[in-house]
What does this fold into?
Amino acid sequence: MTDWQPQIIAFCCRHCAYAAADLAGGLRLTYPPTVKIVEVPCTGRVDMSHILRSFEDGADGVLVAG
Amino acid sequence: MSEVVHNGYKSGSNLERVLVAGHFAVTGELGPPKNHDANVIRRKAELLKGCVDAVNITDNQTAIVRMSSIAAGVILIQEGMDPVIQMTCRDRNRLGMQSDLLGAAALGIKNVLCLTGDHQSFGNHPTAKNVHDLDSIQLVRMVKDMRDDDRFQCGEEIPGGGPRFFIGAAANPFGDPFEFRPYRLAKKVAAGADFIQTQLIYDIPRFREFMKRVVDMGLHEKVFILAGVGPLKSVGMAKYMRDQVPGMIVADEYIERMEAAVKHIDKTDKKARAEAWQQEGIRICIEQIQQIREIEGVAGIHMMAIEWEEAIRPIVEGAGLLPRPAIQ
Amino acid sequence: MIVGEQKPLAEIKQMLAGFHKVLLVGCGTCVTVCMAGGEKEVGILASALRMSTRLDGNAIECDEVTVQRQCEWEYIDPLGSRLANYDVVLSLACGIGVQTLVQRFPNVWVVPGLNTTFLGMPPEQGVWEERCQACGDCILDKTGGICPIARCSKQLLNGPCGGSQKGVCEVNPQTPCAWQLIYDRMSAMGRLEQLLEIQPPKNWSAARHGGPRRIIRDDLRLPEDYRTA
It folds into this structure.
């Protein structure tokens, strides 16, 4: 159980959070591979159906960042 | 029916005779029981006998199922009293109402009070379907057309002539829009109302203002207006009426007086407090009647002592309205 | 518009109990704009049903489709070929849509996902209010454009009942008194005298009380040989 890592879907805004993730990559900062980033043009685009679909397909958590 | 001699009266009910003779009329309200116990009606009738000229029987008041007003009215006739059956538009369509009016007349009932009816959501069957095929003004007109034109609402002639009722309607001087209230009363008069019974009055200045408008419009000459009064039983009841009953205004003066009545009584002495409240309630009611009698255009009072019929005699007596006139 | 509201998930699951494959059919007209049964709501409900039934241990397969208008043959006809693949159809249209599907596809079991609530409009985002009862005999000219049949709790035609106080209805303090609104508007328009006329008993036969209603326009009807329905 200690090895368990939650599957996270992160909806990231192209203009801030996604750019930040990009920058983190440039700085060689690491984050767990269980975090899957989905780039969105704006977090306003994220809908309840996206979040539900994430859970339905096995996500343990959803992060909306923008 | 046609062999009845009307003597110029519309129905010849005791209430009509008292009003036409120019007496200050007194009517009282009687709520039928939530069962089929005729003795409840007889017991309450005993408390009203000799104190009032006619007795209103409520029609599923506050949308709670009770004994039919017509059936209770017949019991009152057996007791030698003059019933005013209340009829709401909530529970029956025009067929049901006309059929009941024919039945009521056949059983000797001579007064009917035409009402919209409290909404069923307030009562004990809130999931019921309401009817409101007619509104109260249309009901007044229908009863009048049955009486004066011998016609059913559809226009068809009533064979042998229509039932003859002394037709009442309600008025709430305290409902909004306030400016429209006298006009709504005018509509009821135009529709054919012979008498009006008002909502309970606990704000005399506002009622006076309402009556001034009514008198200015000349309505008091076309219809008998009976002012609704009733004794407060406690501070709690007064506040409940003020805060919870739609379309009701209770002046602060009365609440303060009811509070003052128990000021020197120990809070734990519930019996003494109740008695003090009741005495003050009766006193206020008597004063109100005296004030209301001075207002131009008021032809009588309608006493609503809800579940406190015992209060009616001391009030009517205290207001100097006994004995009631006996008119043949 | 026709305003509807989604039924609780538990009730929908009860209607679907025993079925394995369901097609959710949304409607792209009224219930889309009142956000109860359009493409988006179909997607959310389908997802919720899939997850919920999976957690219950009897997963239902849920497919989704939304048609432009569920109350017209031409929009639902294309569904015909797909329906044989499903045990049940969950319609997220108003009651009219459900019945249109049933009439067109008599062999398909169709259940309603919405409660069709009223004919109304949104006075503000997220709020819908009733405006019309489709009584078949419009009287809005007599009441200043405010309908007492739809908006007065007692459907009064001759003025406010005694329960109107401070502009609200006695039945629900959230509901404005229709007759206060009528009075205010007639007063503002200088037409108060119109309210003094006694309105006679309404002819309810034009409303639902005359039985189910039907309109036939011969000027629009196709010649008998060309009729599709």
About this structure: The interface with chain C takes residues 89-90, 94, 116-119, 121, 130, 132-138, 141-142, 153, 170-172, 174-177, 180, 183-184, 186-187, 190-191, 199, 246-247 of chain B (CB under 8 Å). Chain B has one domain: 14-232+294-317. Chain B has eleven helices and eight strands.
